Amino acid sequence: MPVNELDSSSGIPLYRQIKDILRHEIIDGSADPQTPITEAQLLDRFDVSRAPIRQALKELSVEGFVYRKQGKGTFPVPGSRVHRPATVRSGALYQFLADTGLDPESTVTGVERVVPPTRIAQNLDLSKGEELLHFTRVISVEGAPLVEADVYIRAPKEFIPTGGALEERGSAFELLERQFGITLERAEHEAWATAASPRQAETFGVPEGSPLLVIETLFFATGGLPAGWRTAVHRADEFKYHFITGA
To answer: What stretch of H or E contains 93?
Structure first.
């Protein structure tokens, strides 16, 4: 069945099918960012009730694929393939990408226990010589590298996941919670732009000096204990990070 048609026999809710169709059209650029997406247009196109149309548009808005202009309608967000909404909890990007049908792949290398750099040790309030679990993860979407993350986790010495286990689960913190009951309470982020170094240019397949987005995250476990540190470098042309702050 063509990807722009609904399948009432698939068991997938109509709103989800409509959402996926529109999302793919926004991602591949076939949706005109200057043309509003209206309920009337979608009702005529899909021949369904208003409820699935409204739910699909609501979720696309939350995930950053569309935005609303007061009095003008709902418009596609051009450019990036991946829009990370504020509702995605820290450490759950891989699962979010999988849930939205982007077919992510995770490659984990260098799993070992190390004494971290001084700056990270200070931010995590470590004792002298304390070792952390360290690894590098590259998340690719549709075959193209999207994020390279350098991760340090404060965990029991008995926590020794393999690279394969980390690739399969997509989140070391999920494994840590399953095995030891250690859960994340909150995270603090800092973000800035940088230019791709020769190594980063090779990793992401972009020209040297291309813009990249860096997000550093300090994780806290229940009770406020510093639990980990991550430096994640993203392709700036493919990734948007939506966040909400207090008043």
So the answer is: helix 93-99
Fold type of domain 14-76: Arc Repressor Mutant, subunit A (1.10.10)
**Which residue, chain included where needed, has tokens 């820290």?**
90
How much of the chain is in helix, strand and coil states, percent to nearest 5? 30, 30, 40
> pLDDT: is 90 or 219 the higher one?
219
d(CA 16, CA 56): 6
Provide the whole-model pTM. 0.69
Pairing of strands 239-241, 82-84: parallel
pLDDT tens readout for residues 168-180: 887 899 899 999 9
CA 37 – CA 69 distance, rounded (Å): 11
Report residue 153 as tokens: 């986790």
**CATH (residue range 82-241):** 3.40.1410.10
- Answer whether residue 247 shows pLDDT above 50: no
Q: Which long-range contacts (CB under 8 A, 24 or more apart) does 201-207 make?
A: 203/138, 203/145, 203/148, 204/145, 204/148, 204/235, 205/144, 205/145, 206/235
According to the model, what pLDDT value does residue 97 have?
80
User: Which residue from 59, 11, 21 is spatially nearest to 41, judged by alpha carbons?
Assistant: 21
Helix 50-62 / helix 39-46 crossing angle, nearest 10 deg = 120
Distance, CA of 166 to CA of 109 (rounded, Å): 10
Per-domain residue ranges for the chain?
14-76, 82-241
pLDDT in tens, 106-139: 999 999 999 999 999 999 999 999 999 999 999 9
